[in-house]
């Protein structure tokens, strides 16, 4: 399991761990935004002569082409097997920079410094690294642990609010799947005003506990996919359209739909379904889409990596704080769940 350090003083901690780890060459990988907002925070404490590689921000660049440039950069800089990489950025930088390090010369060491809420509470833990390939998300990758994950709230100061809100969906998910008490403490109104340090620590702890029991996703780890089977389908379908959803926004839609399925199939009480739909729609609003899109979205659900054969595999709640996995669903049931989500929108419109 990776070591995760919550840092109050990033300069001090990073210097300390760099000294402890030792290296022949040091390289930093960041995207165009984190090069601008986050690299200046650590640059001054890194040794002179360290190298920096920056790539254009965005999921669209989490691909083989960018990896190829990163491997070329490592080669041009003469990185040997004792070189150390710092991935400074959100989940895209961590997944891709980690993948490049884990495969360069059969693997060199890397440190992750996640700079988005989403990457701090989710992508930083669990050792999954990889890239998208020919339109398939996270299609090529490996499991490798970083030497260290260094988490500091300081980076969140420049993160756009919509990116904070996107990451918060994973926080809410952690409460829903594992800890009812935690979920009830999470703010819904004024969600942006919270003790983020406490939230990040608690969410990381929950994710670590799950991953520790099932590192390679043979069973239990699948509960982390609650909301993701339908959520990913929405995310993929509207990618590159003007209705484009951030990951967490799509997962919020997915969690409402899958909470409905949980009520239908795994005993989630009606009151819990109501609490979940109220909370998620208050924070994320209602995503409007066309009736005509639904069949294609359902088709995308069945292409999910978690499926075996043609049935769709869901992770569903038994109640708030308790999640089951490997529950088979049909296209008809998914359609019903999406209709439930749509019915919420029309209820609101009627009430207005
Ligand atoms: N490995 C895992 O277990 C895991 C888990 C969840 C998600 N992911 C992956 O993570 C990615 C999503 O992560 P993300 O939401 O962090 O995406 P991201 O890395 O694209 O970051 C989101 C946006 O915020 C910008 N940004 C990052 N830090 C900033 C800062 N401090 N100030 C200002 N702007 C900043 C980025 O440049 C980008 O535009 C996806 O590719 C997903 O597949 C991986
Ligand atoms: Zn997610």
TrEMBL record:
<dbReference type="GO" id="GO:0000166">
    <property type="term" value="F:nucleotide binding"/>
</dbReference>
<feature type="domain" description="3-dehydroquinate synthase N-terminal">
    <location>
        <begin position="54"/>
        <end position="165"/>
    </location>
</feature>
<dbReference type="InterPro" id="IPR056179">
    <property type="entry name" value="DHQS_C"/>
</dbReference>
<keyword id="KW-0520">NAD</keyword>
<dbReference type="InterPro" id="IPR030960">
    <property type="entry name" value="DHQS/DOIS_N"/>
</dbReference>
<dbReference type="InterPro" id="IPR016037">
    <property type="entry name" value="DHQ_synth_AroB"/>
</dbReference>
<protein>
    <recommendedName>
        <fullName>3-dehydroquinate synthase</fullName>
        <ecNumber>4.2.3.4</ecNumber>
    </recommendedName>
</protein>
<keyword id="KW-0479">Metal-binding</keyword>
<dbReference type="GO" id="GO:0005737">
    <property type="term" value="C:cytoplasm"/>
</dbReference>
<dbReference type="Pfam" id="PF01761">
    <property type="entry name" value="DHQ_synthase"/>
</dbReference>
<dbReference type="GO" id="GO:0046872">
    <property type="term" value="F:metal ion binding"/>
</dbReference>
<dbReference type="InterPro" id="IPR050071">
    <property type="entry name" value="Dehydroquinate_synthase"/>
</dbReference>
<dbReference type="GO" id="GO:0009073">
    <property type="term" value="P:aromatic amino acid family biosynthetic process"/>
</dbReference>
<comment type="pathway">
    <text>Metabolic intermediate biosynthesis; chorismate biosynthesis; chorismate from D-erythrose 4-phosphate and phosphoenolpyruvate: step 2/7.</text>
</comment>
<keyword id="KW-0057">Aromatic amino acid biosynthesis</keyword>
<dbReference type="GO" id="GO:0003856">
    <property type="term" value="F:3-dehydroquinate synthase activity"/>
</dbReference>
<keyword id="KW-0862">Zinc</keyword>
<dbReference type="Pfam" id="PF24621">
    <property type="entry name" value="DHQS_C"/>
</dbReference>
<keyword id="KW-0456">Lyase</keyword>
<dbReference type="GO" id="GO:0008652">
    <property type="term" value="P:amino acid biosynthetic process"/>
</dbReference>
<dbReference type="InterPro" id="IPR030963">
    <property type="entry name" value="DHQ_synth_fam"/>
</dbReference>
<feature type="domain" description="3-dehydroquinate synthase C-terminal">
    <location>
        <begin position="167"/>
        <end position="307"/>
    </location>
</feature>
<comment type="function">
    <text>Catalyzes the conversion of 3-deoxy-D-arabino-heptulosonate 7-phosphate (DAHP) to dehydroquinate (DHQ).</text>
</comment>
<keyword id="KW-0547">Nucleotide-binding</keyword>
<keyword id="KW-0028">Amino-acid biosynthesis</keyword>
<comment type="similarity">
    <text>Belongs to the sugar phosphate cyclases superfamily. Dehydroquinate synthase family.</text>
</comment>
<dbReference type="GO" id="GO:0009423">
    <property type="term" value="P:chorismate biosynthetic process"/>
</dbReference>
<keyword id="KW-0963">Cytoplasm</keyword>
<keyword id="KW-0170">Cobalt</keyword>
């Amino acid at each position: 399991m990776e070591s995760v350090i919550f840092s109050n003083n990033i300069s001090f901690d990073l210097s300390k761990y760099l000294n402890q780890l030792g290296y022949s060459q040091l390289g930093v990988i960041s995207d165009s935004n984190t090069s601008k907002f986050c690299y200046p925070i650590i640059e001054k404490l890194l040794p002179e002569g360290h190298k920096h590689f920056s790539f254009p921000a965005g999921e669209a660049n989490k691909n083989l082409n960018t990896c190829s440039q990163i491997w070329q950069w490592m080669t041009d800089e003469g990185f040997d097997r004792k070189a150390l990489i710092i991935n400074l950025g959100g989940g895209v930088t961590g997944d891709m920079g980690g993948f490049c390090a884990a495969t360069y010369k059969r693997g060199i060491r890397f440190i992750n410094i996640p700079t988005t809420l989403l990457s701090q509470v989710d992508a930083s833990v669990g050792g999954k690294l990889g890239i998208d390939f020919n339109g398939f998300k996270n299609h090529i990758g490996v499991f490798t642990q970083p030497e260290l994950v260094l988490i500091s709230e300081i980076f969140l100061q420049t993160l756009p609010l919509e990116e904070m809100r996107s990451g918060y969906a994973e926080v809410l998910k952690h409460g829903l799947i594992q800890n009812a008490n935690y979920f009830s403490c999470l703010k819904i109104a004024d969600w942006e005003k919270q003790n983020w340090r406490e939230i990040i620590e608690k969410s990381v702890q929950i994710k670590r506990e799950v991953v520790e029991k099932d590192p390679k996703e043979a069973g239990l780890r699948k509960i982390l996919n609650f909301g993701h089977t339908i959520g990913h389908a929405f995310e993929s379908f509207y990618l590159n359209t003007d209705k484009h959803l951030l990951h967490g926004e799509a997962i919020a839609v997915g969690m409402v739909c899958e909470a409905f399925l949980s009520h239908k199939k795994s005993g989630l009480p009606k009151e819990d379904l109501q609490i979940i739909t109220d909370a998620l729609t208050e924070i994320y609003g209602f995503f409007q889409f066309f009736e005509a899109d639904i069949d294609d979205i359902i088709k995308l659900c069945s292409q999910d990596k978690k499926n075996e054969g043609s049935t769709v595999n869901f992770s569903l709640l038994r109640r708030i704080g308790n999640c089951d996995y490997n529950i088979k669903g049909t296209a008809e049931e998914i359609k019903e769940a999406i209709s439930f989500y749509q019915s919420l929108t029309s209820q609101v419109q009627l009430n207005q």
